[in-house]
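look at this stuff:

>
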Amino acid sequence: MRFFFFHLMPYAPLDLDYDKTHKSAWVTLPNSYYDPKLGADLYNRYLDELEYADELGFEGISVNEHHQTAYGLMPAPNVFAGMLARRVKQAKICILGRALPVLSNPLTVAEEFAVLDNVTRGRIITGFVRGIGAEYHSMAVNPAESHARFHEAHDLIVQAWTRPGPFAYEGKYYHFPYVNIWPRPYQTPHPAIWVPSQGSRETIEFAAARERKYVYLQTATPAEMLFKYMRAYREAALRQDYEASADQLGWSVKIYVAETDEIARREAKPHVEAFVNKFLRMPVEMLLPPGYSSIESMKGVIAAKKTITGGARTIDQLLEQGTFICGSPATVRARLEEYQHKGGFNIVMAGLHFGTLPAELTRKNMEMFAREVMPHLKDRVPEGYRPIAAE
């Protein structure tokens, strides 16, 4: 298994009674709930945790992008990657990812990521996403254009990285008489591209395409749906006459480790329940606006996410669904082994901070995971494992 540390940077001091007067922590929650003095302390604490993950030996550390929400205070992940680029010495820096359809100028993404790739001497992993439905409300972008804008922005960025400039680019949404980025990326032909997703069929097909073979990262999904989406990727690869590697498949999941199962549940319970019931709360029309996905994909995502939009969830339900792993080191190792065996993935994006988890418990969780889980599983691979071919 390959282990990456993932941080959402939520606004942990959030007044959790907000839902008595507001429907969601996304888009419409007044920013008067945010205290800049508390936020400044929080940002520095979170950056320290990301840097500490490098010291603990994670293969990579990960940032991401969300807008106008207490769920995650990273509207510009390139900024956070830039702050980490000179201080993180060994780990890869994963930007998971830029929400391409909501950006007005994808060429700036090509430039920013190329700079980061040079500064880190090739330790950047780029993530491209469509962004969840709430981002289209926040950024006033038509969700029906999501797929088309994503594909065009992706193609423009990859061409900017790989095609000698200057050249002109004329698309439906983007028009540039000169594409000629300086600097060019450090990695050849370009930084690795990963595609996180909620499980859209179209996104799986895009990532698995023979000419791309991008890492597909399933996010926050019950175990049974995870296995389904992992199979869908492998089947998409077989339809294109190649066998997908386990290194093309990953899972992003919240995890908490403590001395015993009882201690782990007691310590994690209020914070993971705050995460799913308060920070993740949003109405379905915000999560899946009309036109955002095909009918087939929307049915699948609704089935996987149906508990997000209403009703309180308990830690017991999360553990039963497999959307949260919690327990002693032995319990956590056993769960990861089981899920890897059934899912066939080799990448674990471990969310070791969630919701209101305080600094001391976050550090404890990170240390126990790094020292008592990772070493036991680092040489474990799924049955029939085949390393991804070098591009």
The longest strand covers residues 249-257. The radius of gyration is 20 Å. The chain has a mean pLDDT of 94.
